[in-house]
Model the fold of this input.
Amino acid sequence: MTKVEQTRLMTPNATSREVVSKILYLRQHYHFGPRRIADYLKRFHQISVARSSVHRILGRHGMNRLPANQKYRQHAKRWKRYEKPQPGHRLQLDVKFLERIPGTGKRLYQFTAIDDCTRIRVLKVFDACTQRAAIRFVDDVIRRLPFRIHVIQTDNGAEFQSAFHWHVESQDIRHVYIQPRTPHLNGKVERSHRIDDEEFYQLLDRDGVTDDIHLFNDKLRAWEDYYNYQRPHGALDGQTPYERLLAKTKANALPTS
Done:
Protein backbone atom coordinates (compact mmCIF):
# COMPACT_ATOMS: atom_id res chain seq x y z
CA MET A 1 0.00 0.00 0.00
CA THR A 2 1.37 3.41 -0.98
CA LYS A 3 1.71 6.32 1.42
CA VAL A 4 -1.05 8.15 -0.46
CA GLU A 5 -3.43 5.19 -0.01
CA GLN A 6 -2.51 4.90 3.67
CA THR A 7 -3.19 8.60 4.14
CA ARG A 8 -6.54 8.28 2.38
CA LEU A 9 -7.58 5.46 4.72
CA MET A 10 -6.66 7.57 7.74
CA THR A 11 -8.48 10.64 6.33
CA PRO A 12 -11.69 9.36 4.68
CA ASN A 13 -12.84 12.93 3.99
CA ALA A 14 -9.72 13.71 1.96
CA THR A 15 -10.28 15.34 -1.44
CA SER A 16 -10.73 12.73 -4.15
CA ARG A 17 -8.02 12.07 -6.70
CA GLU A 18 -10.31 13.30 -9.50
CA VAL A 19 -10.88 16.66 -7.79
CA VAL A 20 -7.18 17.04 -7.02
CA SER A 21 -6.45 16.41 -10.69
CA LYS A 22 -8.88 19.19 -11.71
CA ILE A 23 -7.30 21.59 -9.20
CA LEU A 24 -3.79 20.92 -10.49
CA TYR A 25 -4.94 21.21 -14.11
CA LEU A 26 -6.52 24.63 -13.51
CA ARG A 27 -3.40 25.82 -11.74
CA GLN A 28 -0.98 24.52 -14.36
CA HIS A 29 -2.87 25.57 -17.47
CA TYR A 30 -4.78 28.68 -16.35
CA HIS A 31 -2.70 29.91 -13.38
CA PHE A 32 -5.86 30.30 -11.28
CA GLY A 33 -5.46 31.11 -7.59
CA PRO A 34 -7.21 29.11 -4.82
CA ARG A 35 -10.32 31.31 -4.79
CA ARG A 36 -10.82 31.17 -8.54
CA ILE A 37 -10.22 27.42 -8.61
CA ALA A 38 -12.86 26.94 -5.90
CA ASP A 39 -15.31 29.21 -7.79
CA TYR A 40 -14.64 27.37 -11.07
CA LEU A 41 -15.17 23.91 -9.55
CA LYS A 42 -18.41 24.99 -7.91
CA ARG A 43 -19.78 26.63 -11.05
CA PHE A 44 -18.81 24.13 -13.72
CA HIS A 45 -18.47 20.84 -11.83
CA GLN A 46 -20.84 21.33 -8.87
CA ILE A 47 -17.92 20.52 -6.57
CA SER A 48 -17.57 22.45 -3.31
CA VAL A 49 -14.00 22.72 -2.09
CA ALA A 50 -12.87 25.27 0.49
CA ARG A 51 -10.22 27.74 -0.63
CA SER A 52 -8.05 26.62 2.25
CA SER A 53 -8.25 23.03 0.98
CA VAL A 54 -7.28 24.14 -2.52
CA HIS A 55 -4.32 26.03 -1.06
CA ARG A 56 -3.17 22.97 0.89
CA ILE A 57 -3.44 20.72 -2.18
CA LEU A 58 -1.41 23.15 -4.28
CA GLY A 59 1.22 23.35 -1.57
CA ARG A 60 1.39 19.57 -1.23
CA HIS A 61 2.14 19.29 -4.95
CA GLY A 62 4.65 22.14 -5.02
CA MET A 63 2.33 24.46 -6.97
CA ASN A 64 1.49 27.04 -4.33
CA ARG A 65 3.63 29.68 -6.06
CA LEU A 66 2.70 31.19 -9.40
CA PRO A 67 5.31 31.60 -12.14
CA ALA A 68 7.18 34.90 -11.83
CA ASN A 69 5.31 36.46 -14.77
CA GLN A 70 1.95 35.62 -13.17
CA LYS A 71 2.58 37.13 -9.75
CA TYR A 72 0.62 40.10 -8.50
CA ARG A 73 2.21 43.16 -6.98
CA GLN A 74 1.89 43.56 -3.23
CA HIS A 75 -1.35 45.19 -2.14
CA ALA A 76 0.47 48.25 -0.84
CA LYS A 77 1.82 48.90 -4.33
CA ARG A 78 -1.44 48.40 -6.24
CA TRP A 79 -3.73 51.17 -7.33
CA LYS A 80 -7.23 50.88 -5.92
CA ARG A 81 -9.78 50.41 -8.71
CA TYR A 82 -13.07 52.13 -8.09
CA GLU A 83 -16.24 50.84 -9.69
CA LYS A 84 -19.01 52.87 -11.31
CA PRO A 85 -22.44 52.11 -9.79
CA GLN A 86 -24.40 51.47 -13.01
CA PRO A 87 -23.72 49.74 -16.36
CA GLY A 88 -22.67 52.12 -19.10
CA HIS A 89 -21.63 54.99 -16.85
CA ARG A 90 -18.06 54.59 -18.11
CA LEU A 91 -16.34 52.31 -20.64
CA GLN A 92 -12.59 51.92 -20.83
CA LEU A 93 -11.18 51.45 -24.37
CA ASP A 94 -7.68 50.37 -25.25
CA VAL A 95 -5.65 48.52 -27.87
CA LYS A 96 -3.54 45.42 -27.30
CA PHE A 97 -0.66 44.98 -29.78
CA LEU A 98 -0.45 41.32 -30.79
CA GLU A 99 2.59 39.37 -31.94
CA ARG A 100 3.52 39.48 -35.59
CA ILE A 101 2.15 36.52 -37.53
CA PRO A 102 5.01 34.19 -38.52
CA GLY A 103 5.82 34.31 -42.21
CA THR A 104 3.74 37.39 -42.96
CA GLY A 105 5.34 40.22 -41.00
CA LYS A 106 1.81 41.47 -40.34
CA ARG A 107 0.80 42.73 -36.91
CA LEU A 108 -2.75 42.53 -35.59
CA TYR A 109 -4.36 44.77 -32.99
CA GLN A 110 -7.00 43.78 -30.45
CA PHE A 111 -9.39 46.62 -29.67
CA THR A 112 -11.01 46.17 -26.26
CA ALA A 113 -13.92 47.86 -24.52
CA ILE A 114 -14.80 47.00 -20.91
CA ASP A 115 -17.69 48.32 -18.86
CA ASP A 116 -16.43 49.76 -15.58
CA CYS A 117 -19.41 48.45 -13.57
CA THR A 118 -20.06 44.94 -14.90
CA ARG A 119 -16.72 44.07 -16.60
CA ILE A 120 -18.64 43.05 -19.75
CA ARG A 121 -16.26 43.30 -22.70
CA VAL A 122 -16.40 43.66 -26.47
CA LEU A 123 -13.31 42.52 -28.41
CA LYS A 124 -12.32 42.77 -32.05
CA VAL A 125 -9.10 42.36 -34.00
CA PHE A 126 -8.05 44.74 -36.80
CA ASP A 127 -5.01 44.76 -39.05
CA ALA A 128 -4.46 48.49 -38.47
CA CYS A 129 -4.33 50.71 -35.40
CA THR A 130 -5.92 53.85 -36.84
CA GLN A 131 -8.73 56.24 -36.06
CA ARG A 132 -10.78 54.61 -38.80
CA ALA A 133 -10.41 51.21 -37.11
CA ALA A 134 -11.23 52.76 -33.71
CA ILE A 135 -14.41 54.34 -35.12
CA ARG A 136 -15.50 51.04 -36.65
CA PHE A 137 -14.87 49.35 -33.34
CA VAL A 138 -16.74 51.85 -31.19
CA ASP A 139 -19.74 51.66 -33.54
CA ASP A 140 -19.72 47.88 -33.00
CA VAL A 141 -19.50 48.38 -29.23
CA ILE A 142 -22.45 50.78 -29.20
CA ARG A 143 -24.51 48.36 -31.29
CA ARG A 144 -23.74 45.28 -29.22
CA LEU A 145 -23.89 46.44 -25.61
CA PRO A 146 -27.37 46.08 -24.04
CA PHE A 147 -27.24 49.41 -22.21
CA ARG A 148 -26.68 53.09 -22.98
CA ILE A 149 -23.08 54.32 -22.83
CA HIS A 150 -22.54 57.65 -21.08
CA VAL A 151 -18.74 58.05 -21.09
CA ILE A 152 -15.90 56.42 -23.03
CA GLN A 153 -12.42 56.69 -21.57
CA THR A 154 -9.20 56.17 -23.54
CA ASP A 155 -5.52 56.97 -23.38
CA ASN A 156 -3.99 59.59 -25.67
CA GLY A 157 -3.07 57.17 -28.47
CA ALA A 158 -3.09 58.39 -32.06
CA GLU A 159 -6.04 56.10 -32.83
CA PHE A 160 -8.22 58.02 -30.34
CA GLN A 161 -7.61 61.56 -31.56
CA SER A 162 -9.87 64.19 -33.16
CA ALA A 163 -11.79 62.13 -35.74
CA PHE A 164 -12.53 59.44 -33.16
CA HIS A 165 -13.26 61.99 -30.42
CA TRP A 166 -15.85 63.91 -32.40
CA HIS A 167 -17.42 60.74 -33.76
CA VAL A 168 -18.01 59.54 -30.20
CA GLU A 169 -19.31 62.94 -29.10
CA SER A 170 -21.73 62.94 -32.06
CA GLN A 171 -23.31 59.77 -30.62
CA ASP A 172 -24.24 61.74 -27.46
CA ILE A 173 -21.43 59.97 -25.59
CA ARG A 174 -18.79 61.91 -23.72
CA HIS A 175 -15.18 61.03 -24.62
CA VAL A 176 -12.49 61.66 -21.99
CA TYR A 177 -8.74 61.09 -22.02
CA ILE A 178 -6.73 59.81 -19.09
CA GLN A 179 -3.71 61.88 -18.11
CA PRO A 180 -0.43 60.99 -19.84
CA ARG A 181 1.67 58.34 -18.11
CA THR A 182 -1.21 57.18 -15.89
CA PRO A 183 -2.10 53.71 -17.27
CA HIS A 184 -3.54 52.73 -13.86
CA LEU A 185 -6.53 54.94 -14.67
CA ASN A 186 -7.38 52.41 -17.37
CA GLY A 187 -6.61 49.61 -14.93
CA LYS A 188 -9.61 47.39 -15.68
CA VAL A 189 -8.88 47.14 -19.39
CA GLU A 190 -5.15 46.69 -18.71
CA ARG A 191 -5.92 43.86 -16.28
CA SER A 192 -8.27 42.24 -18.78
CA HIS A 193 -5.46 42.22 -21.36
CA ARG A 194 -3.31 40.27 -18.93
CA ILE A 195 -6.13 37.75 -18.58
CA ASP A 196 -6.24 37.50 -22.39
CA ASP A 197 -2.55 36.60 -22.37
CA GLU A 198 -2.86 34.04 -19.59
CA GLU A 199 -6.10 32.32 -20.57
CA PHE A 200 -6.44 32.83 -24.32
CA TYR A 201 -3.28 33.69 -26.23
CA GLN A 202 -0.95 31.38 -24.27
CA LEU A 203 -3.36 28.51 -24.89
CA LEU A 204 -4.13 29.37 -28.51
CA ASP A 205 -2.99 26.75 -30.99
CA ARG A 206 -0.18 28.51 -32.82
CA ASP A 207 -0.84 26.42 -35.92
CA GLY A 208 -4.31 27.90 -35.93
CA VAL A 209 -3.11 31.49 -35.82
CA THR A 210 -3.89 33.10 -39.13
CA ASP A 211 -3.79 36.48 -40.80
CA ASP A 212 -7.42 35.95 -41.87
CA ILE A 213 -9.15 38.60 -39.76
CA HIS A 214 -12.53 36.86 -39.92
CA LEU A 215 -11.19 33.52 -38.67
CA PHE A 216 -9.17 35.22 -35.93
CA ASN A 217 -12.20 37.19 -34.80
CA ASP A 218 -14.27 33.99 -34.67
CA LYS A 219 -11.79 32.58 -32.14
CA LEU A 220 -11.73 35.85 -30.22
CA ARG A 221 -15.55 36.03 -30.15
CA ALA A 222 -15.71 32.55 -28.59
CA TRP A 223 -13.26 33.71 -25.91
CA GLU A 224 -15.27 36.92 -25.39
CA ASP A 225 -18.46 34.90 -24.85
CA TYR A 226 -16.71 32.67 -22.32
CA TYR A 227 -15.32 35.73 -20.50
CA ASN A 228 -18.71 37.48 -20.34
CA TYR A 229 -21.08 34.58 -19.69
CA GLN A 230 -19.17 31.73 -18.06
CA ARG A 231 -15.89 32.81 -16.45
CA PRO A 232 -16.18 33.56 -12.70
CA HIS A 233 -14.45 36.83 -11.75
CA GLY A 234 -12.74 37.27 -8.42
CA ALA A 235 -13.37 41.03 -8.53
CA LEU A 236 -17.11 40.29 -8.88
CA ASP A 237 -17.21 37.82 -5.95
CA GLY A 238 -17.33 34.85 -8.31
CA GLN A 239 -20.05 36.26 -10.58
CA THR A 240 -19.72 36.45 -14.35
CA PRO A 241 -19.98 39.91 -15.95
CA TYR A 242 -23.41 38.99 -17.34
CA GLU A 243 -24.60 37.92 -13.89
CA ARG A 244 -23.38 41.23 -12.50
CA LEU A 245 -25.34 43.02 -15.25
CA LEU A 246 -28.52 41.13 -14.32
CA ALA A 247 -27.99 41.91 -10.64
CA LYS A 248 -27.41 45.62 -11.32
CA THR A 249 -30.38 45.81 -13.70
CA LYS A 250 -32.65 44.16 -11.13
CA ALA A 251 -31.40 46.42 -8.33
CA ASN A 252 -31.93 49.55 -10.43
CA ALA A 253 -35.44 48.44 -11.35
CA LEU A 254 -36.58 48.03 -7.73
CA PRO A 255 -38.93 50.82 -6.59
CA THR A 256 -37.55 53.15 -3.95
CA SER A 257 -39.55 53.66 -0.78
